[in-house]
From TrEMBL:
Homology family: Belongs to the FliM family.
Protein name: Flagellar motor switch protein FliM
Key words, A-Z: Bacterial flagellum, Cell membrane, Cell projection, Chemotaxis, Cilium, Flagellar rotation, Flagellum, Membrane
NCBIfam families the UniProt entry points to: fliM_switch
InterPro entries, per the entry: CheC-like_sf (IPR028976), Flag_FliM (IPR001689), FliN-like_C (IPR001543), SpoA-like_sf (IPR036429)
Pfam families on file: FliM, FliMN_C
Subcellular location: Bacterial flagellum basal body; Cell membrane
Species the sequence originates in: Mangrovibacillus cuniculi
Membrane topology per record: Peripheral membrane protein
CDD domains named in the record: FliM (cd17908)
Primary localization class, coarse: other
GO CC terms, sorted: bacterial-type flagellum basal body; plasma membrane
Length: 332
């Protein structure tokens, strides 16, 4: 029988209420028989599972790390970007939550349909622009009257930053982000219908002494074709790809032509540091291997053969006597 499990204190309180007459057994039975109605808001339709939201969070955690590296090098100042939250809300609610005047970068992400919005808090945007122009990174919020030069600097900066979005999403889909629109007033930007469900990933951003938020708004229509890939099963499964025979042959040829060091080891010895420091030209070091025993031949630092030293015309040589088997690099 499905139902909520009561604690001992709740059971005692219920028995006490029945015994004192505050509640009768008939009322309790009647209440239990009544249908419980759960309120559902169709304007806040949950179209993504928690598992899919977690996958989106992981993707954008990688994106945040890439952005931190890019902005740190580009602005030459302290930069820290982390994922603060990932929520699914109606598009209308997202538009109401951002400032009336802000930095809005709209990107197309072919081959996926629809557009993705990157909203950057003006404090952050102006701190970045101040650093690019040689300043200390101070922020002056005058987003309502951006000059043409300021608009170009900002749009170029965020277009370059969003290139790392491709790398962050490469495990899910091979997208090609392109800046399609730069706007400062969200009222003039209508990407989808007001009730369309969007995923909003909020990034905590610190540029020098200035802090603010970068919000990435992804409509459901963009993610719809790749929703199955956002499940944990897709992340965990390993697909065995069919190997192209031509690619295998090319790889084998490359490997065959690769050069590796081959060393015939005459022997080894251990001496004290004091003796090592006193070594001079003409001194003799006694090795731990007899001259009549086979030498170990190493390929790439790994013992592979035994051999004996000889002479080929006027050059020193080594004759392979046997193959060494065993170790981590052998199947046998």
């Amino acid at each position: 029988m499905a139902g909520d499990v009561l604690s001992q204190s709740e059971i005692d309180a219920l028995l006490s209420a029945i015994s004192t007459g505050e509640m009768s057994a008939d009322e309790l039975k009647k209440e239990e028989q009544e249908k419980k109605v759960k309120v559902y808001d169709f304007k806040r339709a949950l179209r993504f599972s928690k598992d899919q939201i977690r996958s989106l969070t992981r993707i954008h955690e990688n994106f945040a790390r890439l952005l931190t590296t890019f902005f740190s090098a580009h602005l030459r100042t302290y930069v820290q970007i982390t994922v603060a939250s990932a929520d699914q809300i109606p598009y209308e609610e997202f538009i109401r939550s951002i400032p009336k005047m802000t930095i809005l970068n709209t990107f197309e992400v072919p081959p996926l349909d629809g557009r993705i919005l990157m909203e950057v808090n003006p404090n952050i945007a102006y701190a970045m622009m101040d650093r690019i122009l040689g300043g200390s990174g101070e922020s002056i919020n005058k987003v309502d009257n951006l000059t043409e030069i300021e608009t170009r600097i900002m749009s170029n900066t965020f277009e370059r930053a969003f290139e790392y979005f491709r790398e962050a999403w490469s495990t899910i889909s091979d997208i090609d982000p392109m800046l399609s629109e730069f706007e400062v007033n969200p009222q003039f930007l209508q990407m989808v219908s007001p009730n369309e469900t969007v995923v909003v990933i909020s990034l905590n951003t610190t540029i020098g002494d200035t802090s603010g938020m970068i919000n990435i708004c992804i409509p459901h229509v963009v993610l719809e074709p790749i929703i199955p890939k956002l499940s944990v099963h897709y992340w965990m499964q390993t697909k065995k790809k069919d190997r192209n025979p031509i690619e295998v042959e090319l790889l084998e040829n490359k490997v065959k032509k690769s050069q590796v060091p081959l060393v015939a080891e005459l022997g080894t010895s251990e001496i004290a540091i004091e003796d090592f420091l006193l070594l001079d030209i003409g001194d003799v070091i006694e090795l731990n291997q007899s001259i009549d025993k086979p030498l170990v031949v190493k390929v790439g630092g790994i013992p592979k053969f035994t051999g004996q030293v000889g002479k080929v015309k006027r050059h020193m040589g080594i004759q392979i006597l046997d193959v060494l088997k065993g170790g981590d690099d052998d199947d046998e």
